[in-house]
Design brief:
Elements: H1 3-23, H2 41-54, H3 72-84, H4 89-119, H5 122-133, H6 136-139, H7 148-164, H8 170-184, H9 191-202, H10 207-222, H11 227-236, H12 253-265, H13 272-277, H14 286-289, H15 292-308, H16 310-313, H17 331-348, H18 350-367, H19 379-404, H20 411-430, H21 445-450, H22 452-464
Helix pairs in contact: 1-4, 1-5, 2-3, 3-4, 3-8, 4-5, 4-7, 5-22, 7-8, 8-9, 8-10, 9-10, 9-20, 12-17, 15-17, 17-18, 18-20, 19-20, 19-22
């Protein structure tokens, strides 16, 4: 059977399994009341709605930072359906779910074409397409109006453009797609300098080509992503490159400082965060128990957080124990208390902060086997997570094997993949920024997906060895 027919079969199977998941699987996981929306959906939705109806891009017009709470890429994607269906939510979100599903099926074709070009092997490309067609970790995000699914589609589109775009437009196209993808999901921005390094390597013998093509890449990024920070500065006098959590009423300085404190002493902020919201006795993390002064300050600040801190009171959907506050109360005291504790932890326990906690985060990121809510986990879900870990490690092994091979044309691509994977995992597990150390599997999706390419390289070597680089007439 010709490769084109086999690819059609693979894509058809990918479509069927995605539809079955949407119609049946979503009742098991994640078992939301509405499979097409979740809490963050409304931040993107409201941002476009306010722009369309009131002329102001903001998730919450009452908050100063609502204008920069979300990068606009995914909001404008929602906006297509908002305009198409006249603002009818009962039609908008199911349409988005199905659109993302079909885009993910198209991504199977992108994977086939990318691998065909990288390895000059249609058999290998069919294996890659088959793996992605049944790859569950993007599939579960297709139905819900979140940015993960679209960002992966755009990331694969950028690799496709690198492989197939006409030479004169190649780098402008790659830059434009990556710029749009960054506006959809900010972590994609790390691919921009990495592709820039590939440009430098490929044209290292021609300074004029570097200048010309580098200008095209930069122009593509500036005309897409660049409009966002420019708007923030010119229109609102704010230097915001991606987004600011203070644009959400439930992400005030009090909650942010609590989160960063928890990520300084343990792998996550549960069960403490839930205990605060439910007005229960809050467990003191082990690291804070080592110092009586720290433990005392922690418990004193917790009491205030439970009773008079504005940001915590806004988490009604997560079960805050009384009516939300309308005034700031002791919010600043709470924020200052948690910030002071975090600083003390960094000064008193540098090894735990800089080494031990990041390693625990990395272990969780690489070897996660259960859902956050362990009561919803089962043997099948654990097997899926083990499958994810397996693909990661054969992808890493394939990367090093690829780098050692005699084939040189696309070695820069595997370096890009490896650098992004390692860099993003280290940054997310060990970073000190506000949104770092928050270990959710969806944040690792871009790194995990592109690691499928070297994983397939290893599979190819095991199946056919080193001599199968010609296109096969299958």
């Amino acid at each position: 059977m010709k490769s084109r027919k086999l690819l059609f079969v693979v894509m058809s199977l990918g479509l069927i399994v995605r539809l079955l998941y949407l119609w049946l699987g979503t009742k098991i996981y994640p078992a939301r009341p509405d499979i097409f929306t979740d809490s963050d959906t409304w931040l993107w939705f409201n941002s476009f709605k306010n722009l369309y109806e009131l002329g102001v891009y903001s998730s919450d017009l009452s908050l100063e930072y609502g204008i920069v709470s979300r990068t606009p890429g995914y909001s404008f994607f929602i906006g297509i359906f908002y305009v198409l269906f006249g603002g009818d939510k009962s039609l908008i979100f199911p349409a988005i779910g199905y659109a993302q599903l079909f885009l993910d099926v198209l991504a199977v074709w992108f994977v086939f074409k990318i691998v065909s070009q990288l390895f000059q092997s249609k058999k290998t490309a069919l294996i890659a397409a088959f793996i992605y067609a049944f790859y569950p970790f993007v599939m579960v995000h297709n139905p819900v109006a979140y940015s993960e699914s679209l960002s992966i589609f755009l990331l694969l589109l950028s690799f496709y453009a690198y492989c197939y775009a006409p030479q004169r437009l190649k780098w402008f196209t790659v830059g434009s797609i990556l710029g749009i993808a960054t506006l959809v999901r900010p972590q994609i921005s790390l691919f921009i300098p990495l592709f820039g390094l590939i440009l430098l390597y490929e044209n290292r013998k021609s300074f004029s080509s570097i200048v010309k093509l580098g200008t095209l890449l930069t122009l593509g990024v500036l005309l897409t992503y660049g409009m966002w920070p420019l708007r923030n500065y010119i229109n609102h006098k704010k230097i915001v490159l991606t987004q600011d959590l203070r644009g959400f009423s439930n992400w005030g300085e009090d909650v942010i400082n609590f989160m960063t404190l928890m990520h300084s002493v343990k792998e996550n902020w549960q069960p403490q965060f839930g205990q605060i919201l439910r007005n229960e006795k809050v467990e003191t993390p082990e690291l804070l128990k080592r110092n009586l002064e720290n433990e005392t300050l922690f418990q004193e600040t917790i009491k205030k957080a439970q009773h008079c801190s504005f940001g915590f009171s806004q988490w009604q959907t997560m079960g805050y124990w009384k009516k939300p506050l309308t005034e700031q109360g002791c919010t600043q005291e709470v924020a200052n208390g948690f910030a002071l504790l975090r600083q003390k932890v960094i000064e008193q326990y540098p090894f735990e902060y800089y080494v031990r906690i990041p390693l625990l985060n990395l272990r969780k990121a690489l070897f996660k086997i259960n859902l956050h809510d362990a009561s919803k986990s089962n043997a099948f879900i654990s097997l899926l997570f083990l499958y994810r870990s397996f693909l990661i490690f054969i992808g890493l092994a394939g990367s090093f094997l690829w780098l050692k091979s005699t084939e040189t044309q696309y070695k820069p691509i595997v370096l890009l993949i490896l650098v992004y994977f390692i860099g993003w995992y280290v940054l997310l597990c060990a970073g000190t920024g506000v949104q770092m150390r928050n270990i959710e599997m969806r944040y690792f999706l871009p790194a995990d997906v592109i690691l499928l390419f070297p994983a397939v390289y290893l599979i190819k070597q095991l199946l056919w060895g080193k001599n199968d680089w010609q296109q096969e007439g299958i």
